[in-house]
Specification:
The chain is mostly beta strands and 989 residues long. The chain has two helices and 88 strands. The longest helix has 24 residues.
């Protein structure tokens, strides 16, 4: 065996390691064929003789000899050429008698080469080609082909649809022109030569015909997975008008419950329960699936819509590649939330009684009362124009509602789960119809015996005046104005003057010719003979929910039941009938007060002929938001939000219960709310959380919808009052380099910070691409270091999967010449009184350290590494010692570093019971406590039983010692005090 020393040895070791590293890649890339065959020429004219010449029929193991070259003609017959390959080359004359493709392959026993095709073609020059699509008419595909014999013609035919066939004769000059009246089918067409009977076709080129664009949309942006009912409508809208054909909607990507898809179905049922791919035929391009059940809890539903005039052959999958129109749509399937709400209707009509069914299901698709249902308590409230209903704790909720005007009906579900967390879900159902208003003067004068001149304004839902409706008023005043007879301008219907003859309700009914309606109802009051005094003249929004008052008629108190009418802060007329006199006053509930303003009340006798008025002022509390100060929430990261509430009257902090609401007001994000113990309270689209005491902190995790183009926005409301707008911004992921070298180790440092610029700890960061698939976890500085060795050029994507919407840096892997030397760091004491010293050596190199010498002695490495940490024991001579470290990387770059250590021979001391272990590795034992190394009184580390270290001896004081212990980066020497000296001992390691 030859032994090499010094730099030459390191260099040879480096190259050997490099070759061993590269050998598997070379073996994988090699061809299984024994020969590599290359022929010239590769294109000939039919009926001519060509000399086949090769310089590449080569046995890769170095053998040469007789090789058979088997060829196959266009007619399918085969024959063999024999070539003696004394020098690895051959030449052979061959007559190419037919038009078509000849296949040649070298063989030798079971070893074969690649197949080389020689194309036997007539001289063909096509005219300039454009791009083609279904519906293109009068298309001429021309060109020149020279030498085509009699009995042959030019042919264009569809490669997958039989019977789609066009021909053209060839003129004496070789010109041809194939005329296509209209491209009816999409797909690939082959243009070539054939006999006049269509046989012996030879392809010269391909023509691609694309389908026309078909826009596919859905009325939902996402579906709920896990067997939930999804009411969804898909619409396929063509760019051009089409007729006499059929639309097909193909679904794939997730499992679909078989029973939830109706219509003419194409596809195979898996396990008799679900489809993995299914197509539904449809006549008008609008497919409504009322109860689509998606069995996968997450994924993407791919909807491919196409239009076909002819019958579709579904033999090869479902999609017909010759479709006339084609479009696709991807819809995400999201896991079911803890609480899921569905309704039987998606729209309502004004002034029309409708049965509204509301279904509330938990994450397992179970309703309240089902076995193992997580729904512990459920309350459903339905509100809208003259709609206010609620019900609790049922499997199905049914409400007969009659919204009075166009607008929205809101379904609110507040559910308490078995883990005692609370979820709030809302659904908004549009109300189609008209909107009507009565002029303010008439509303203010609705008093028994008064004369009114009503004016009713009618618009559609968007505020556009309606001039052709019929408006009828009934009750104490009656009259009708017909817009089809009377000329109405700007939707205003004017009635004649008349007296209010009783105290029944004043009712306005509106209907237009299309049947859309609106309804208004107002109470008519009696005479003003009551004096009403409120208990509190000022109410605090978000805290006060009731108003109390006393009533007098003259000097006498009124104790009979009364009715109360008022317009709330949202402009909605409210009536509370039969208010009872209790404990010296009347009290009515105002519900949640969310804004400032003045509320005017009318207290009315039950017969409607007496009334009095009073007013209260509503003021907003003073709410201070302390965090986050910059108004930002980091996307996908839990963050604390704190606030406090003060009275607007005396500026004292309010300690009553506070309800906190987070809402997504621009449909851009979803979020969860947690209490300080991280118990989940809410995961989607708005939540209320009851907190004892005003000062509070909650934690929020928000995620912006990926399809939304702008930053997500969340509103923080305290007792219904907006106090802060929080912007959801993504975390920031960066890397320290944009390029890495192929075939070498590269140190890549990724840093993850939140939207405030603070590092994120314990986050998962991934690198994927060009054979790289790495995962790491960030440290306290938000950093993680990867050793990256790509095997091919390309892109490596850096991602933090738990953080949505981040910008994912890309690193380019490319071939790089490594001319950088390794970096050497030496840690050794300047002086020592020991004959040996432990030297901590750290070597780093992006291309991997392959060799290491210390004072000329080779240090074994397990394998080349980006970073090497070694502790080497060096024997010293008395006086100054120079320690020399040499390191080489896999590219052969060599670096040198030195460090000086002075050895002062110590004066022999006594009293160290462990002096025999000085300079040796020892093992720590103990009976009652651990051994702690604490230099300068500051705890450095607590050593556990069985810990191995190098003992360097006592330093004059019974409890002061020197030890060499392992820390990150290698062994380091520390002088410190040993505590608890009676309960530990050292033994041989």
């Amino acid at each position: 065996m030859i032994r090499l020393k010094g730099k030459k040895a390191i260099a040879i070791i480096t190259m050997a390691a490099f070759l061993l590293t590269m050998l598997p890649a070379f073996v994988l890339a090699s061809t299984p064929a024994k020969y590599v065959l290359t022929l010239s020429p590769t294109t000939v004219r039919p009926g001519t003789t060509a000399t086949l010449v090769s310089g590449s029929v080569v046995d890769i193991y170095g053998n040469k000899g007789v090789v058979n070259i088997v060829y196959t003609t266009p007619a399918g017959t085969s024959d063999t050429l024999t070539a003696t390959l004394a020098d690895g080359t051959f030449a052979k004359n061959y007559v190419f008698g037919q038009e078509g493709d000849y296949a040649f392959q070298a063989t030798d026993g079971i070893d074969v080469s690649n197949v080389v095709y020689v194309l036997s073609r007539y001289e063909y020059t096509p005219d300039a080609r454009g791009s083609y699509k279904v519906g293109d008419t009068s298309v001429i595909l021309g060109g020149t082909i020279k030498g085509l014999p009699a009995g042959r013609q030019m042919v264009l035919k569809h490669e997958s649809v039989a019977g789609v066939y066009y021909t053209s004769a060839v003129t004496d000059t070789g010109r041809f022109a194939i005329s296509v009246p209209v491209f009816t089918y999409a797909g690939t067409y082959a243009l070539g030569t054939a006999n006049t009977d269509g046989n012996s076709f030879v392809k010269y080129e391909e023509i691609t015909v694309a389908p026309q664009a078909l826009t596919v949309t859905a009325d939902k942006t996402a579906l709920t997975g896990g067997s939930f009912d999804n009411n969804v409508t898909f619409t396929a809208k063509p760019a051009v008008t089409v007729a006499n054909g059929t639309y097909y909607f193909e679904f794939s990507g997730v499992k679909i419950d078989q029973s939830s898809v109706s219509g003419t179905i194409y596809g195979s049922v898996i396990d008799s329960t679900y489809y993995t791919k299914v197509a539904v035929a449809d006549s008008d391009g609008v497919l409504n699936l009322a109860n689509l059940k998606v069995l996968d809890t997450s994924g993407t539903l791919t909807v491919k819509a196409y239009y076909q005039k002819d019958a579709v052959d579904f033999a090869n999958g479902l999609y017909a590649d010759n479709a006339e129109l084609l479009g696709t749509l991807n819809i995400p399937v999201n896991p079911a939330a803890k609480v899921n709400v569905f309704t039987n209707v998606t729209s309502l009509a004004a002034d029309t009684t409708t049965t509204l069914a509301v279904y509330v299901k938990d994450v397992n698709n179970k309703v309240y009362g089902d076995t193992n249902s997580t729904l512990k308590d459920v309350k459903v409230t339905v509100t809208g124009p003259d709609v206010n209903a609620s019900d609790s704790n049922k499997a199905e909720y049914t409400f007969n509602i009659n919204p009075s005007q166009a607008g929205d009906v809101t379904v609110t579900v507040v559910a308490t789960l078995t883990d005692n967390t609370q979820e709030t879900k809302t659904l908004t159902i549009p109300v189609d119809g008209l909107k009507a208003t009565l002029d303010a003067a008439t509303v203010a004068n609705l008093v028994y015996g008064a004369t009114v001149t009503p004016k009713v304004t009618v618009t559609d839902k968007n505020g556009t005046p309606i001039n052709n409706a019929t408006v009828t008023i009934s009750g104490p005043y009656s009259g009708t104005v017909d817009g089809k007879i009377t000329n109405i301008v700007n939707g205003q219907y004017n009635f004649t003057s008349g007296a209010l003859t009783d105290v029944t309700n004043f009712v306005v009914n509106v209907v237009d010719p299309s049947g859309k309606k609106a309804r208004l109802t107002y109470p008519v009051l009696g005479s003003n003979v009551y004096t009403v005094t409120p208990e509190k003249a000022t109410l605090i929004a978000g805290y006060d929910t009731e108003v109390s008052f006393t009533v007098k008629e003259g000097a006498y108190g009124v104790t009979d039941n009364v009715n109360v009418a008022y317009t709330d802060l949202n402009g909605i007329n409210q009536t509370v009938n039969g208010v009872t006199y209790i404990n010296g006053k009347y009290t009515i509930s105002l519900g949640s007060l969310t804004k400032a303003g003045t509320i005017n009340f009318k207290v009315i006798s039950t017969d409607g002929k007496k009334y009095g008025t009073f007013a209260v002022t509503v003021k907003l509390p003073v709410i201070k938001v302390f965090a986050p100060a910059d108004g930002i929430l980091t996307d996908s990261q839990k963050e604390a939000v704190s606030y406090a509430v003060y009275s607007p009257v005396d500026n004292k902090e309010l300690t009553a219960n506070t309800t906190v609401t987070f809402s997504v007001y621009d449909n851009s994000a979803t979020f969860g709310v947690y209490d300080l113990n991280d118990n989940t309270l809410k995961t989607v689209n708005g939540n209320t959380y009851l907190i004892s005491g005003a000062s509070a902190t909650v934690k929020v995790i928000a995620t912006k919808a990926s399809t939304y183009k702008f930053d997500g926005k969340l509103e923080l409301l305290v007792n219904g009052i907006k106090v802060s707008e929080l912007t959801v911004k993504p975390a920031v992921l960066t890397v320290n380099k944009t390029e890495v070298a192929v075939g070498s180790d590269n140190a890549v440092e990724a840093t993850l910070k939140d939207a405030h610029g603070n590092p994120i700890k314990d986050a998962t960061v991934t690198l994927n691409g060009t054979g790289v698939a790495l995962t790491g976890t960030t440290d306290a500085d938000g950093k993680v270091i990867f050793t990256v060795m790509p095997f091919a050029t390309g892109k490596i994507v850096v991602d933090a999967p738990a953080y949505a919407n981040i910008t994912k840096p890309e690193i380019t892997a490319k071939f790089v010449v490594d001319d950088k030397k390794p970096v050497i760091t030496i840690e050794a004491p300047v002086t020592t009184d020991k004959e040996t010293v432990d030297v901590n050596i750290k070597v780093t190199d992006e291309g991997k350290v392959a060799g290491l010498l210390v004072n000329g002695q080779r240090i074994e490495l397990v394998a080349p590494m980006v970073e090497v940490n070694k502790v080497v024991t060096v024997t010293l001579k008395e006086g100054k010692n120079t320690i020399t470290v040499e390191a080489a990387d896999v590219a052969g770059n060599i670096a040198t570093a030195t460090s000086d250590v002075t050895y002062n021979k110590p004066v022999v001391t006594t009293g160290d019971k462990y002096s025999k272990y000085v300079g040796q590795m020892v093992k720590l034992t103990y009976s009652k406590t651990n051994l702690r190394v604490a230099p300068n009184g500051k705890l450095l580390v607590t050593l556990q039983k069985g810990y191995k270290m190098r003992y360097l001896g006592r330093e004059g004081v019974w409890n002061k010692v020197r030890v060499s212990i392992w820390t990150k980066g290698g062994y380091k020497t520390y002088t410190g005090y040993i505590y608890d000296p009676y309960f530990w001992a050292l033994t041989n390691a």
